[in-house]
Each structure stands twice: as structure tokens, then as C-alpha cells.
Write a structure and sequence with these properties.
By secondary structure, this protein is α/β, with parallel strands linked by helices. It folds into 2 domains: 30-113, Leucine Dehydrogenase, chain A, domain 1 (Rossmann fold, 3-Layer(aba) Sandwich), CATH 3.40.50; 139-272, 3-Layer(aba) Sandwich (Rossmann fold). It is built from 10 helices and 11 strands. It has helices at residues 6-26, 43-58, 74-86, 105-111, 123-131, 139-150, 170-178, 198-202, 254-258, 271-289, and strands spanning 2-3, 33-39, 62-68, 92-95, 159-163, 187-191, 207-210, 228-231, 235-238, 246-249, 263-264. Helix 2 (43-58) crosses helix 10. It is globular. Bound molecules: nicotinamide-adenine-dinucleotide.
């Protein structure tokens, strides 16, 4: 078994991005500027946004973190989005999800100007991705594609099983793996909460993408010998050996599955850092595409 080391690759990508930014600035360009809107005080969301802001600094980007209380009204939030849409100093921005339950997520996603939608969630960008047109790929699936590509995993002809059908991971992952390109060209089975006999599908998979949100959900008896396993899950579980009493773990029973597969992502240090690197790539692309 070999690790698909997302942490290492994301550092390489950040160095490459930083070099591009330096060259752009040396040619008289402005640094890319990513803004993030964070609503409420969910500790996981705070941590994710914190990682993104830190990565911006390392890559030579400007960043702005805009924090508001969880009781913000939908119209106030939509006004903030519109302001960022019109702010020429901002190249791209994200609204950290999940939002409080009184906010209509989809209305917020659709309010973001597609040319600044570096999360790739706007229907226009989702449609462009589905058609294979140039666009911002959603950061997590986009990062997984880069992780496979840069590790020399040839996916053409593979039978891939994607577990999950969310708009941010499972659905775009299915689209990207089945596209006519390398990586891609997979025959994809997409499984979800209503799938009957999940194991019968995963056992046939050359590539498993687990995006379920349940700790250690994919067990060794569900995995074919030699499969490639990508674990998207980030779950906080109890661990009395840690000072905090908790630790992060994935959707895959790593210790036992690792013995059977050829390649596997660790959690943490696999998909998470690739998500951040892809967000930076998208923001740099927004900067370079901008005439401002
Ligand atoms: P989600 O809750 O929106 O989707 C989970 C999916 O799992 C659903 O589509 C559901 O149909 C499927 N599912 C649930 N129970 C199932 C079962 N018994 N059998 C088969 N499928 C089942 O979650 P999400 O936003 O897609 O995220 C999934 C996980 O990935 C979470 O742990 C999340 O924290 C993590 N995540 C990580 C990153 C990263 O950068 N590493 C990014 C996004 C999400």
C-alpha cells in the first residue's frame, strides 16, 4: 500500500502557485485576493476558513475574512454577496457552508457572480463543468482529480464507485470521473443512502471515493484487493489519548482497508489539503482572467 499524500502535494502546488503570483506581480499585476464570508461560530467552519486564510498568505495572496453573527438575516447576507460581486479589489470569494438553517443556501449560492465563484457551486459553473467547458471546478472533487493525476493514477477504464450524492462532493465527483479525459474515463457507479447492498458495488470497484460523513463506514470487507481508496470524510470522534479528547478521522477504516488497497488517502493529510490548494488555483485563475 502507498499513501496518496495530499499534504505533500498541496505544499508543492502552493509553491507553484506562489511562483506564478510572484511572476504576475513582477509584471505589474496585482496579487490575487480571496474573500471568505463566515457566518456564526461553528468550530469546524472556523477551522476550515482559518486554514484557507493561512494558505492565502503562504501563496502570496491577499485575503479578507468577513465574519458575522449566526442571526444575520438572509437579505443582509445577500447584500454582502452583492457588495463582493461589485468590489473590483476581490477576485474570488466563498461563503463557508453550512449556513444557519434560516438561510436559503441555494439563494446565496446563486447570488455569487459566476466569475468570482471560486468554490464552483453556482449553477452556471456546475453546468459548465458538466459540459466539460473551462470553469472553476468545485475544490474537493477538483483536488481529488489533481491528487490522482499527479500521483500517476491512470483512471481510464477503471470501475469507480462514488459513495455520496452531495452537490459539493459526490455529484461533481461522478461527473469528473466519467468525463472523456484522463483522469476520468471511468465507468462510475454512484451510491447513496438509498442504495441497496452497497458492498456488492464497492467490491467491484477499482476506485472508491467515500464521501459519506460517517466514521469508518467503509470497512475492509467492502474493498477489493488492490483498489485505490480516496477518503473524503472528516469526522470528529472521541479519543481519550488526546488532550482535547477528540480527533479527526475519515469515512474509511484506514488501518484495515490500507492492508488491502494499492493506494489510499490518509485523514487528515489527504483530501483536505488538496481542497485548499484547488481553491487557491481557482482564485489565481480568477485573478489572471480578470481585466481589472
Ligand atoms: P452530505 O451529508 O451532504 O452527503 C453524504 C452522502 O452520503 C449523502 O449523499 C448520502 O446519500 C450518502 N450516504 C449516507 N448514508 C449512506 C449509506 N448508508 N450508504 C451510502 N451512502 C450514504 O456530506 P458531504 O458534504 O458530501 O460530505 C461528506 C463527508 O466529506 C463529510 O464527512 C464532510 O465533512 C467531508 N468533506 C470533506 C471535505 C474535504 O475537504 N476533505 C470537503 C467536503 C466534505
Amino acid at each position: 500500500m502507498k499513501l496518496l499524500d495530499g499534504k505533500k502535494l498541496s505544499l508543492e502546488l502552493q509553491t507553484e502557485i506562489a511562483a506564478e503570483v510572484e511572476a504576475h506581480v513582477a509584471n505589474g499585476g496585482r496579487k490575487p485576493h480571496l474573500a471568505a464570508i463566515l457566518i456564526g461560530d461553528d468550530p469546524a467552519s472556523k477551522a476550515y476558513v482559518g486554514h484557507k486564510v493561512k494558505a492565502c498568505a503562504k501563496a502570496g495572496f491577499e485575503s479578507s475574512l468577513i465574519e458575522r453573527e449566526g442571526d444575520i438575516s438572509q437579505s443582509e447576507l445577500l447584500d454582502m454577496v452583492r457588495e463582493l460581486n461589485e468590489d473590483d479589489s476581490i477576485d474570488g470569494f466563498i461563503v463557508q457552508l453550512p449556513l444557519p438553517s434560516h438561510i436559503d443556501n441555494q439563494a446565496v449560492i446563486e447570488a455569487v457572480k459566476p466569475s468570482k465563484d471560486v468554490d464552483g457551486f453556482h449553477p452556471e459553473n456546475v453546468g459548465r463543468m458538466a459540459l466539460g467547458l473551462p470553469t472553476f471546478l468545485p475544490a474537493t472533487p477538483g483536488g481529488i482529480m489533481t491528487l490522482l493525476e499527479r500521483n500517476g493514477v491512470k483512471t481510464t477504464g477503471m470501475h469507480a464507485v462514488v459513495i455520496g450524492r452531495s452537490d459539493i462532493v459526490g455529484n461533481p465527483m461522478t461527473t469528473l470521473l466519467s468525463r472523456n479525459a484522463e483522469p476520468g474515463n471511468c465507468t462510475v457507479t454512484q451510491c447513496h443512502s438509498r442504495t441497496v447492498d452497497l458492498k456488492s458495488h464497492t467490491l467491484k470497484a477499482d476506485l472508491i471515493i467515500a464521501a459519506v460523513g460517517k466514521p469508518h463506514f467503509v470497512t475492509a470487507d467492502m474493498v477489493k484487493e488492490g483498489a485505490v481508496v480516496v477518503d473524503v470524510g472528516i469526522n470528529s470522534i472521541e479519543d481519550s489519548s488526546r488532550k482535547s479528547g477528540r480527533r479527526l478521522t475519515g469515512d474509511v477504516d484506514f488501518d484495515n482497508v490500507a492492508e488491502k488497497c494499492s493506494l489510499i488517502t490518509p485523514v487528515p493529510g489527504g483530501v483536505g489539503p488538496m481542497t485548499i490548494a484547488t481553491l487557491l488555483q481557482n482564485t489565481l485563475r480568477a485573478r489572471l482572467a480578470s481585466k481589472r
